[in-house]
Amino acid sequence: MSEIRIAAESRTEFGKGAARRARRAGFVPGVVYGHGHTPVHLNLPSHDLMMALKTPNALLVVPIEGKDEYVLPKAVQREAIKRTIEHVDLLLVKRGEKVTVEIPVHAEGELAPGGNLLEHVLNALPIEAEATHLPESVTVSVEGLEAGASIAAGDIALPAGVTLAVEADVVVLQVIGAQAPEATEEEAAEGEEAVEGEEAAVEA
After folding, report:
1. 84: pLDDT confidence band, cut at 50, 70 and 90?
2. How far is CA 160 from the centre of its chain?
3. Phi and psi for 203 in degrees, rounded to 5?
4. E-state strands within 79-137
5. Quick one: 131 exposed, middle or buried, by C-beta within 10 A (0-12, 13-18, 19+)?
6. How does DSSP classify residue 153?
C-alpha cells in the first residue's frame, strides 16, 4: 500500500464552534492517538482527506510535532445527508507494527447457471498485517459455484505476511439457490377453482 501524505495543521481551538469554523475553512477536525502518546488534535484538508479515504485502510503520513508519522483511519464521522466528513479519529502506527483491520472482499467469476444468488455473509475480512503493508482488498473466484456452495475465511488466499484475524471456518460467501416465483393472485384463484371443480366432480 502506498503512503498518502496529508498536510495537516495543529488544532488549538476546540468545541463545536471551532469545529464549524474549521469546516467552513475547508478542514476536518481530527485526533491522533495510540502508543501511549498524548492525543494530538489536527485540522486536515477536507478534499485531500476525502480522496485519501477512498482507499480502504489508507496509510496516511501526517506531521505531528514537526515529525512525519504514520496513522490509520479508525473512525470517520460523516454528515447524515451530504455524507461529508465531520471528524476523523486516527491511530498512530509504526513501521513493522502489526495491526488488525478489515479489508473488502471482492468476488469475480460467474456462478453456475440456474439463477443462483451470491450472498456476502462478510463484506469485509478481518486480517492482521504490518501497518505499512496492508492489502487494500482480497479477490475470491466464485466461477461455477452451485447452490449450497460456500467459501470460508480459511479458503481465501492471502498475500505474504497477512494472516486471518477470524476463525478459518467462518463463512464469507455462500451461494443461494434461485427461489420459485410466487404465484400471482390470478394463478392462485385459478388453482382454487380447479380444486373446487375436482371436489364437485367427486361428490357427483
Report:
1. confident
2. 22
3. -65, -35
4. 85-93, 98-108, 117-120, 124-130
5. buried
6. G
Which pLDDT tens digit goes with each residue over 158-189?
999 999 999 999 999 999 987 655 545 555 55
40: which 3 cell numbers? 494530538
Cα separation, 47 vs 41, in Å, equals 18
Radius of gyration of the chain (CA): 26
Q: What percent of the chain has pLDDT over 70?
A: 86
Q: Judge contact between 137 and 171, C-beta under 8 A.
A: no
For residue 120, which phi and psi values (nearest 5 degrees)?
-90, 95
Do residues 149 and 174 touch, judged by C-beta distance below 8 A?
A: yes
- Cell numbers for 24: 467552513
pTM for the whole thing? 0.73
Determine the straight-line distance between the first and last CA of the chain, rounded to whole angstroms: 80
**Residue 54 grid coordinates:** 477512498
Segment 45-56 shows an average pLDDT of 90
